[in-house]
Amino acid sequence: ARTPSVFPLLSCGDCKGQVSFGCFAAGFFPQPAFITWEGVASGESLSFPEVAMAKSQFGLSSRVIMDAEKAKNGKFVCQVQHRSSNLKEEIK
């Protein structure tokens, strides 16, 4: 099993009162992996299907869109679950 590398994804700013951010887990094997969020309400996140990468590895991403006011003082943590490990990455 290969452990994923986890990368935070940040938008460049405020778009009509909303912010977006995400998480990308790359380089894991085998499938599946799952992304969940701490500090994010149900319905605010969207996970995309796993994609094949080079050397029989896979990638997975998830994004969150929420009101900028709600996000201002929040703490948001991307959690990646895979058979090889459980990883957390705080979005700052």
Automatic annotation (TrEMBL):
Stretches assigned to the Ig-like domain: 4-92
InterPro entries reported in the protein's UniProt record: Ig-like_dom, Ig-like_dom_sf, Ig-like_fold, Ig_C1-set
Membrane-crossing residue ranges in chain numbering: none
SMART domains: IGc1
SUPFAM superfamilies membership: Immunoglobulin
Protein name (Swiss-Prot/TrEMBL): IGHE protein
